[in-house]
Amino acid sequence: MFCVNSVFAQKISYTHQDITLKEVQKNKSWEPFNERIYNGLDNGVYWFKVELEATQSSLIITLPEAHLSRTNLYENTREILPLPKKRFQTYKIPPSTESRTLFIKVNCLLEARIPIEILKSDDYFEEEATSRMIIGIYIGIVLCIILINLFSYLSFRNITYLQYTLMVVGLSMNVLYKDGLVLLIFGNGIITESVEPFINSILPIAAVLFTTSYLNLKKELPQLRKVGIGFIVLAFACIAIFISTGNKYAFSSISILLLLSCDVFWIAGILLWNKSIYAKILALAYGVPLLFAHDFYISPHLGIHGLGLPLWTYKAGSVIEMVVFTYAIMYQAKTLADENNQMRQKLKDYTDRIKLNRKSNEIGVQLERELQKKFALTNKEIEILREISAGKLNKKIAEEQFISENTVKFHVRNIFNKLDVKSKRDAGYLYLNFSPPSE
């Protein structure tokens, strides 16, 4: 970003040389600075010459980029110190009745992405107040999303809520780092450069856990899941190299590998598009902030402008993603809870039927005993009467009782005589409808 009012600045130019202040003051080779520096890995020391005209207003010079923590501002040989407790490197320039020339030294340890803004003090503090209010609203929304997911976990005991909470933390930490809160909290120093890879790694790690559970990747796409995890492992190897050596190529590899890992899990949603409504939700909701993340994290390393989207678009995309996913997980958990309730109800019904059948059998045994006692039936006769009531023929009864068909006929005649009936139908009816006399 380059924002400057021509009333305050007549000319801004820069040179990419690691030279001293005395040398830069004598330097004759300057390039015009019309927009932010976007030189990818061509980092190192950049000097900026700011030629200001006379003004009665205090001015603010700020470099709104999170990883620019090593900057110096000079007027002649005097160094102007940055304002404390600011989100980015910020300098206050007092009014002057004469024109003057300032020199800004920017030491880019990471990618060369250097914006400069020059504003009236009143305008700057008004914009800063608005920005902080928006950050506060964003943090409030994030905290609400986190609390909803935590309460949902306590209600449903579904681990997916905790996994997505970690994703929300990862998304919001990326945004808040870009908003300059690390510099605001920790001030100048190596912490601002060292912390970025770890902040960026939270989201991919959470994506592994969340999408594995949310889309059942261990079963559906196990090999693709391993590829995503492999990118994260390689990214952590590059983090170790960067922390120990400060190698800029290792740093760029971190962002690229972590984003490739996120891409893999987004691709999982595309591949499972037709299998699950949840895959569709992931592909659509996750795709928007992922697109913005490529613009914020890949384009600078390659030295290209990309979409040039402002940070608020990433914030808006992440909020939309959080809301959609929170609703989707709640819907999924409710669906699973309903299915579990239905399963429990079916199990209860089945258990109740077993109990009822057992009770019916117990009652049936008692009734048979009363029937046998009343009509003086033998054990074999009561067994054959039971078979008759089931509508079985003599031949079938003989096979099941392991007796001859003539023997069955003999027992049937005795049963008819004892029950005083003329047919099997009557005998079966009496068996099925027998009730003992009330006492």
Architecture overview:
There is one protein chain. With 439 residues, the protein is an alpha+beta fold. It folds into 3 domains: 2-113, Immunoglobulin-like (Sandwich), CATH 2.60.40; 127-340; 348-432, Winged helix-like DNA-binding domain superfamily/Winged helix DNA-binding domain (Arc Repressor Mutant, subunit A, Orthogonal Bundle). It contains 15 helices and 12 strands. A 6-stranded antiparallel β-sheet has the order 3-2-5-10-7-8. Strands 1-12-6-9 form a 4-stranded mixed β-sheet. The protein is rod-shaped and about 135 Å long.
Shape: rod-shaped
Estimated structural class: alpha+beta
Order of helices and strands: EEHEEEEEEEEEEHHHHHHHHHHHHHH
Strand order within the widest beta sheet: 3-2-5-10-7-8
What is the alpha-carbon Rg in Å? 40 Å
> Which residue ranges are poorly predicted, with pLDDT under 50 across at least 5 consecutive positions?
1-7
Task: Tell me roughly what share of residues is in helical segments.
Answer: 55-70%
Largest sheet: 6 strands, antiparallel
Distance between the termini: 101 Å
Mean pLDDT: 84
Q: How many separate helices?
A: 15
Q: What is the number of E strands?
A: 12
β content, as a range? 5-15%
Number of domains: 3
Structure summarized in a few sentences:
This protein is an alpha+beta fold and about 450 residues long.
Structural key phrases:
single chain, 439 residues, alpha+beta, Immunoglobulin-like, Arc Repressor Mutant, subunit A, six-stranded antiparallel β-sheet, four-stranded mixed β-sheet, 12 strands, rod-shaped
